[in-house]
Design a protein that fits this description.
Number of domains: 2
Strand order of the largest sheet: 1-2-3
Number of strands: 3
Helix content: over 70%
Structural class: mainly alpha
Length: 277
């Protein structure tokens, strides 16, 4: 319960700092700090299922988000508002709002899982398989707010594979959409970028599900190898390609990413101007 309160206060505090000028630095500082604490509270769950990589990422997020909060403190101190900090505030708050808004409401996540399952099974049937899609399995949780970590799932009957929320590509879609929206660029360029990123991720994710089921069902490789190695490598390659395409379409996005990496070298604008010849 406490982590849920921290999550939602953190999201809306950071979002308010993104959309409003009123004490924006203070709201962003608080939002970054709260969301960093929230991610640490998620680490024990990943440890309990032996997912040590995600557990480590959750732990690392706290110092990273505290560093973002520190940069907001510097912005207030130096009376600045660099575009990169607004980009981070919007990208993180909107991305988490989309993802957790769906993930925490089983009726929404179940519906999304069912759509992805139907599209996955449609392609498998075109390949000659006679699988069918089962009903949405909600487990013990409420339909309107998730009360357990049990995975909501839809079975591809005949394949011995379940589709869960992680199989929908929601995380990548939410993060990509939020970061593109938070970039200071022309609306038409943002729309063009979204039209490239969102459908591509969705279609690629359905194809990824088909590949995993095919490789597993035909005993070409194990589910672990297909899912955790082949599919993940393919996903990383796709995301890199999409990022390069967005860089080409929207140079402002590239500038924001470079600015994030360059935050440790940040200096007051006035001081930088004095150094220039």
């Amino acid at each position: 319960m406490y982590s849920e309160i921290i999550l939602w206060i953190g999201i809306f505090t950071l979002l308010f700092g993104f959309i409003s000028e009123y004490k924006k630095h203070q709201f962003r500082m608080l939002g970054f700090a709260l969301l960093g604490v929230f991610w640490v509270t998620e680490a024990p769950y990943f440890i309990s299922i032996s997912d040590y990589v995600n557990a480590l990422l959750c732990i690392i997020t706290l110092p990273l988000f505290l560093y973002f909060a520190y940069n907001e403190y510097l912005s207030k101190k130096w009376d600045e508002d660099p575009e990169v900090m607004r980009f981070l505030a919007g990208g993180i708050s909107i991305g988490m709002l989309i993802y957790f808004g769906v993930q925490r409401m089983p009726i929404l996540s179940g519906y999304l899982i069912k759509i992805v399952s139907d599209h996955t099974n449609m392609l498998l049937n075109l390949m000659g398989y006679e699988f069918t899609v089962g009903p949405i399995m909600y487990g013990e949780t409420s339909l309107f707010y998730r009360t357990s970590y049990e995975n909501i799932r839809v079975s591809i009957i005949g394949s011995n594979i379940n589709i869960i929320l992680a199989c929908t590509g929601l995380q990548a879609i939410a993060a990509g959409s939020a970061l593109i929206y938070s970039t200071d660029a022309e609306r038409r360029i943002k729309i063009k970028s979204l039209l490239v990123v969102v459908p591509t991720i969705y279609i690629a994710n359905v194809l990824r599900n088909v590949m995993i089921i095919y490789l597993t069902y035909e005993n070409i490789t194990s589910f672990h190898t297909a899912h955790n190695q082949i599919a993940k490598i393919g996903s990383v390659i796709l995301l890199i390609i999409l990022m390069l395409i967005v860089f080409e379409i929207m140079p402002e996005f590239y500038e924001n990413i470079i600015s994030v990496v360059s935050l440790p070298k940040r200096e007051p604008t006035r001081q930088k101007q004095q150094k220039q010849p």
